[in-house]
Amino acid sequence: MTPGPRAPSLLLVKPAGADCNFRCDYCFYLDAEARAGAARRRMGDEVLERMIASYLALDLPVHAFCWQGGEPTLMGVDFFRRVTELQERHGRPGTVVANSLQTNAALIDDAFADHLAEYRFLVGCSLDGPPHLHDRRRRSAGGGTTHDRTVAGLRRLQARGVAVNALCVVHDVNAGHPREVFDHLVGLGFDHLQFLPCVEFGPGGAPRPWTISGRQWGEFLIGIFEAWRDGGLAVSVRNLDAVLQRLVDDAPGDCTMDDSCRQYLVVEHDGAYYPCDFAVAPDRCLGNVMTMTPAEAMVTAGMAEFGRGKAPTSPACGDCRHFDVCRGGCPARRDPREATAREWLCEGTLAFLDHARGGLQELADAIRGPLHAPPPFHGSPGSKKCSPCPSRAPIADAG
Question: 135 with 174: CB under 8 angstroms?
Fold first, then answer.
């Protein structure tokens, strides 16, 4: 069963809003107000229960919650105990709930790790490579290094058998080191990786210093592809899995490869709905969980308008040799200074697909063959930072 237009594939929940114990240079979400120390953002119990109850009332094969931020572990373990309690209370017989948590892991203590293990959360840990690459752009609120703190939390999770994925932001510091980053993450025990390109524009439209170019992105992905192939394909790389999924069954393996931006909903700490992680702004608010169900939010005029924005604006997309895979990329990565701009990373995406598509097509053909089972496409099309996997992260069959 595929969720229809009235059913979001995912709720991307920001229970602490932009609040975070880290101060990563490239964080698009930590705006000037948050940097200046705005009032604490925390999701209240009434909002939490209304959100969970209204989402679980929808008829879906899997109800996926991705808890994100900011830093969601600022809410404390008792908040997540309340989350699972409410999910069990409001889940109907046969309901399957998938929880994932995207975190810098610095606040994961034994009690937190125990709860995540008991309820089979999938946890995404944010790591940008070895310390000399990671710590350049990911600093603590006090300006200190963070790599070792993240690894300490990771080890607590791994010791309890929690399924843990790595999310690596590719920025100006680590973009030139794909194999070193790959080897470091695999060496830490990750077998599912996701690489998120850093593209951020300033108020005047110029790219910020940590933004990578299309060429850098292409060279990085090619390096990751070669490291993955040299490693015997044993590690799942979501960026490659997404292409494979398109080649296997012509389905989008990632929201950037879909034809419309209407896959999921963001829920802010105050219950406000937004259409995308990159569109949490007052003029994009769709409504609030206290007065609107997720199904109603999905069919608002604002959601329809946002979805139409996915249509390519560049004439170059019309006869592009790889448009059938990329579908024009992510609208949030278009140069705001050019009305008909290609996606910022287009050059790199083309270079990567020129290099890797043949090999991935061979694998796709083999997957479709009678003697082969498909690889574990890990994730849900809507998620920008953490990918919930229902087969590995159900809370319970409620009822």
Answer: no
Tens-digit pLDDT profile for residues 165-192:
999 999 999 999 999 999 999 999 999 9
pLDDT: is 8 or 212 the higher one? Answer: 212
285 contact partners, CB below 8 Å, separation of at least 6 = 272, 273, 274, 302
Which value, to the nearest 10 degrees, does the dihedral of the CA atoms of residues 221, 254, 79, 19 take?
A: 60
> In this predicted structure, which of 127-131, 297-301, 361-365, 366-370 has the lowest mean pLDDT?
366-370
The per-residue pLDDT for 376 is 35
Which residues neighbour 3 within 8 Å (Cβ) at sequence distance 6 or greater? Answer: 9, 60, 61
Which residues are catalytic, by number? 277
pLDDT tens string 85-105: 999 999 988 899 999 999 999
Separation of first and last alpha carbons in the chain: 21
User: β-strand 122-126 against 11-13: which pairing, if any?
Assistant: unpaired
* pLDDT given for residue 38 in this prediction: 57
Gap between the Cα atoms of 256 and 274, Å rounded: 17
Tokens standing for 16? Answer: 């602490």
- CA distances to 49, 162, 324 from 15, rounded to whole Å, are 12, 22, 36
Say how far residue 268 (Cα) sits from the centre of its chain.
16
Q: For the whole model, what pTM was predicted?
A: 0.90
- CA-wise closest residue to 126 among 196, 28, 174: 196
Amino acid at 179: R
Residue 154, both tokens: 């990771």
